[in-house]
Amino acid sequence: MNYRSGSQIREDFLRFFEGKGHRRVHSASLVPANDPTLLFTNAGMNQFKDVFLGLEKRDYSRAATSQKCVRAGGKHNDLENVGFTRRHHTFFEMLGNFSFGDYFKKDAIAYAWELLTSKEWFGIDPLRLYCTIFEGDDAVPRDSEAYQYWLDVGVPAERIFELGAKDNFWAMGETGPCGPCSEIYYDLGKDAGEDPSVDKPFGEDEQRYVEIWNLVFMQFDRTVTPGGPLLTPLPKPSIDTGMGLERIACVLQGVLSNYETDLFTPLIAAAKHYVMLMGGLDETVDIANGSSLPASYRVIADHARATTFLIADGVLPANEGRGYVLRKIIRRAIRHGRLRGANKQFFFFMVKPVVELMGTAYPELVNLQEKIQNVVIHEEDRFIRTVEVGSRKLEDLIAQTIVDAAVSNDVVVTSEEEIPEIVQRSLQLGVLRTKNIVPVLSGRQCFQLYETFGMPLDFMTDAARDAGIAFDMEGFERAKEEEQARARASWKGGSQKSAAPVYRELTKTEFEGYSALKVEGAKILALVKDGVGVPELKAGEQGEVVLDATSFYADSGGQVGDIGWLYSDDHNTVVADVLGATKPVQGVFAHKVKVREALAVGDTVDTVVDGENRRATERNHTGTHLLHAALREVLGKHVKQAGSLVNQSRLRFDFSHFTGVAEEELQQIEDLVNREVLVNTKVETMVDVPIDVAVNELGAMALFGEKYGERVRVVKIGDFSTELCGGTHTGATGEIGLLKLVGEGSVSSGVRRVEAVSGTGALNEFRRGFDVVRVVGQMVGASDAAPADALRQRIAAQEEEMKKLRRELEQVRMKSASAAVSDAASAAIEVKGVKVLAQRVDALDKSQMRNLVDELRGKLGSGVVVLGAANEGKVSLIVGVTKDLTGKVQAGKIVGQIAALVGGKGGGRPDLAEAGGSDAGALDGALGKASEVVGGLL
């Protein structure tokens, strides 16, 4: 059967597996939760990685998802192919069904075949499907089980192919779960082939036969031994499958390209409309015919999806990491709009059609549409300015290439009159051409412009051609490959290690710390020392204690774990100091302890939290919720948490925002928070709330980087703040006492940080402020102005006085240096008819040295001036040549040879050049050889 919409395919997939006892699980964020090994969520199994590794346990053993994925950067990077092939995308949705030790190969194969071929579901003709299995190797035998199960569901033997480990063996990483897999392929027909006139069999035409579903059978645990990898059968084999929504939509909608499905055609139409609206080409485009469609529109449509979803999940354009990839995606889309003629900002318009198309499945997009558009507008504006700067840089690079080629080939352009610089370059290029010398524009330097300023490659190659010089494409590609290798090396997916085995099979710890600071009779389930389970911890030793119940909160959600004590079963004797608590496996609490009296597995203890420490932490955590809401109220709804840290002494909150927060805004934020504190609003906690209800009905904010289950805990503070949160909080806002902001600054591009204190911390802050006011009063004396204003006035006056003194000092230095070389003509040495003046001027900076060079060239009338200075072990050199001599001797060559004598290098224009060096002790000798260097060049 043919489906009318990709949305219907998504829904039917999830509904099918719900009917097979699977839990429908929401898509995880594109920013992997607590997994530094991944750049972006790139597969459906990412959110279940800890479950497969044994680090986390869920209350269900079957799941089905439609997972948002991005593959652009790091290990998975096909960015340059997107838009130019039928099936490459930056953003896509991965449909998947999962079994955590429940069903295995037989059921997974049966479910897949039923969904694909049943008339009640997708209704695909079985004669157009092919299956593959693992052929086996020295470590793992042929997957005969999968082969038989495919036969059992009705797949003919001639349609089951055996492939090697590259295609049909999957591993999470160098170690951990792994196993064979089966792939299902669909025959798009001869028209889709690489050569439609040739009817090629399966396996010989990648365009015609498209993989639509991969079934991974996790049945081994791979470990590394001195003798090589060791594969051990898993006690509970599991299933992980993945089917691209875009690919199956292509099949079910009867088209040859993903871009011809209804997941893309509305976006492509919008791209064409907005590009033309902003000055683009008025061209006739058949939106439904992917093969005739200009690639640029496919790029814009694809990148609009990735951009919208990444920003919605908290990623902002930046110069590194995830933000850098987002910036490249946005800029690539803008470049392709320009290729179709757009000369104004257009890409931000694309957010709306993406939200209209996908907002039903992902309702968070609707609420964030305005914020996403603002981010894109800001980035488009920034890119336009960047391209202008990049264009100037490219012009300078081309000019310098011509000059350097002239200098290195001893080409001299003579002129008695001052020649404008651009004309000088043209003359040099003309002479180079007569000598059959072709300057080559550095590919490596052009790649830097490509990366830093987003300069399109074709733009740079065209500019080189227009200037009459060659382009070093090999150097560009080499630099690009090196950058990609660095990116892959910095994001090595799948390297996450399992927790120590002692934790993996333990039952969950019952956390009773929300309602009590003390739990009596907690049983010791395990003791750990240096990552290894031990039967006993002796007095004086440090280790970890796992209990069946506890009152200690463990590090989570930005809140640090509690400290306190473990008491013996007599309820009076402290047997261990608790220094903190963590969760090495989801639900298992490990207490970091320093033992006072010996502890053994099976002992019972009382857990007693340091109440004063907990209450201080709670004040700061509740204050964080109020602060988040106040930031959104004052700065805008685009503000979203990007990280936090809450302990007993202060709170730190990172959030998305483009500019610094003004002092007046900070005061507004502080006032809003403390207004809520004074109202003494009750802090309401709702537990076991379905996540749909929490987000869509209660309007709860989800916190960045956190992983949520199907049922969540909601913390609500009146109508002011509602967030998903597992932390501990005050009973009412009045318990915070007062919240005082103590700092605001930048963390990275688009991310700001505020810090604050509450309770006694705020009191101490006010005491310090009062002490400062008292000292200021003593400094500035009686004044009608407020102490802070009086101090600012005093400092401003002192700064103005300092500026005046610095100017006077610079003038004295210049006069002194000028006086020292005032008799320039007599101090100069004549070499082959050219006057050469070399002087040491340690007191001057580079700017002053340039001014002095101009002054001395004027005094000489005709000649060469060489100045050198040494400061803090570093050498600065500058050479000036009067215009009448640049045809005979050039400043760049002079400074290059002198710089070599002081361990440096440099260059510049024929009339002025600079250099640096590292050997200050050699400066006098180098200046002494200046006349010799000039003479040699003459």
CATH topology of the largest domain: BirA Bifunctional Protein, domain 2
**What does the radius of gyration come to?**
35 Å
Please state the average pLDDT score.
Answer: 86
CATH class of the largest domain: Alpha Beta
Percent of residues in beta strands: 15-25%
The number of distinct β-strands equals 35
- Total count of domains: 5
The largest β sheet comes out as:
9 strands, mixed
Q: Provide the structure class.
A: alpha+beta
- Outline: globular
Helix share bin: 25-40%
CA(first)-CA(last) distance: 85 Å
What is the overall number of helices? 26
Q: State the fourth-level CATH superfamily of the largest domain.
A: Bira Bifunctional Protein, Domain 2
Named CATH architecture of the largest domain:
2-Layer Sandwich
In the predicted model, the low-confidence regions spanning at least 5 consecutive residues are 415-419, 490-498
Overview of this structure, please?
This protein is an alpha+beta fold. The protein folds into 5 domains: 6-263, 2-Layer Sandwich (BirA Bifunctional Protein, domain 2); 296-490, no CATH class; 501-609, Elongation Factor Tu (Ef-tu), domain 3; 618-767, Threonyl-trna Synthetase, Chain A, domain 2 (Threonyl-tRNA Synthetase, Chain A, domain 2), CATH 3.30.980; 821-937, Diaminopimelate Epimerase, Chain A, domain 1. 39% of the residues lie in helices and 24% in strands. It contains 26 helices and 35 strands. Strands 1, 2, 3, 4, 5, 6, 7, 8 and 9 form a 9-stranded mixed β-sheet that branches. A hairpin with a 3-residue loop joins strand 26 (711-717) and strand 27. Helix 11 runs antiparallel to helix 13 (443-453) and helix 20 crosses helix 21 (787-820). The radius of gyration is 35 Å and the shape is globular. Residues 415-419 and 490-498 have low confidence and may be disordered.
